[in-house]
Fold this protein.
Amino acid sequence: MEGDRHSPEASRYFMLISEAAQLVLQAGAMAKGGEIFFLDMGEPVRIGELAENIIRLSGFEPGKEIPIDVIGLRPGERLSETLIMDGEELLPTEHEKVFMVQNHRLNAAAFQEDFETLRRLVIARDREGTVAQLKAMAARY
């Protein structure tokens, strides 16, 4: 349940730094300018299961010798990660673990206008306006 702040079912994606770096370099080599790339990170891992496995690998019994305290989700944190948005499509590339994101809903002109507004607010050192603009943009994009 998304609203259950104490759920041990939260899951996250994990990737080795070396693998992520290699995929970023691959994506960079394919870039022509302006593309958004998606790296295949495999399947998500349940955080509770990860904790239990680490405890077992350390030679202890989860919940008996080493307690697991579920503290719940932080404000704004989700039970599971959403990696692509509605209206986005993953297109294959030359590398099987690197995809290009195609967004059918992104209006480039509207984004440019939002960005220019943000730029003007930053230059004017309008902190409240900048934060408000960032919040508005985050909700749209």
